[in-house]
């Protein structure tokens, strides 16, 4: 698959799907849903210029520190963390770039994810301000908040329907602007959900991304996923998210085991290292 990708016999999209599959990611498990990168950082221009490197996100950095400002806070958090019991290793992020709640967050307008979201929120929609209501605002929140490290899901590159409230769900209204949350607000350069998907997919297959995608793959699936390289790249997540970090079979206490299982399911899981 690698050779095919290098020879450009398969697209960037196909290559990412294949890597996700090999690393145990699947559409059938929200806790291990396929993970895709944010690839753009320009969500405000009238036109999207894919020949300009400045419109792309820096793929060599974890999303939590793409904004330089956050890097210092993330570093300090890691260096100052001390677990008195010695169980929890130091980490940069207490949340994860891919977890069940994040998948439902993006797909809230489409069943069965709507129902799953309502179940997760004890029988109702989460408050409107926390809903996925705008792509530019979601990106801005990532840039401002080092604790929000959500990457994307594959649907952002082929499935325009998830951006529309076709079922007419009442998702509430934003507290300050009183704006009703309905269809997802798109970047200025996208004239419709279909147009967004078309341009976003072209961005994924662009020359710039083809030349830099391997840097992101190293962080998520490769050698910068754990160990000294991960520390250096500011890419260490909470210990429970790593494969083999916890031996559930060794836990005799049923309650403790259930708690840990719940944590692993909700916190997100780092893909198997390839």
From TrEMBL:
InterPro entries cross-referenced by the UniProt entry: BEACH_dom, BEACH_dom_sf, BEACH_Domain
Residues in the signal sequence: none
Annotated GO MF terms: protein kinase binding
GO biological process: intracellular protein localization
Pfam family, one: Beach
Tagged with keyword Repeat: yes
Gene Ontology CC: cytosol; membrane
SUPFAM superfamilies per UniProt: BEACH domain
Keywords: Repeat, WD repeat
Domain BEACH per the UniProt entry, residue ranges: 1-274
Keyword Repeat recorded: yes
Protein name, entry field: Neurobeachin-like 1
Taxonomic source organism: Podiceps cristatus (Great crested grebe)
């Amino acid at each position: 698959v690698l050779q095919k990708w290098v020879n450009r016999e398969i697209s960037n999209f196909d290559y990412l799907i294949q890597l996700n599959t090999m690393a145990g990611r699947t559409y059938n498990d929200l806790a291990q849903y396929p993970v895709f990168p944010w690839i753009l950082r320009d969500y405000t221009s009238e036109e999207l210029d894919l020949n300009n490197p400045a419109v792309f996100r820096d793929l060599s950095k974890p999303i939590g520190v793409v904004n330089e400002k956050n890097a210092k806070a993330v570093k300090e958090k890691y260096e100052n963390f001390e677990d008195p019991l010695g169980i929890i290793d130091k980490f940069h992020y207490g949340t994860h770039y891919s977890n069940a709640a994040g998948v439902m967050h993006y797909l809230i307008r489409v069943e069965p994810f709507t129902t799953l979201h309502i179940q997760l929120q004890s029988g109702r929609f989460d408050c409107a301000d926390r809903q996925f209501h705008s792509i530019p605002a979601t990106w801005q929140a990532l840039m401002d908040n080092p604790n929000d490290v959500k990457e994307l899901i594959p649907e952002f590159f082929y499935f325009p329907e998830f951006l529309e409230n076709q079922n007419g769900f009442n998702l509430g209204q934003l507290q300050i602007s009183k704006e009703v949350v309905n269809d997802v607000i798109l970047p200025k350069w996208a004239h419709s959900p279909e147009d967004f998907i078309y341009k976003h997919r072209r961005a994924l297959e662009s020359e710039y991304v083809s030349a830099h995608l391997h840097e992101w793959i190293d962080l998520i699936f490769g050698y910068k996923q754990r160990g000294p390289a991960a520390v250096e790249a500011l890419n260490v997540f909470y210990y429970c998210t790593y494969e083999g970090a916890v031996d559930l079979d060794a836990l005799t206490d049923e309650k403790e085991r259930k708690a840990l299982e719940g944590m692993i399911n909700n916190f997100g899981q780092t893909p198997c290292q390839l």
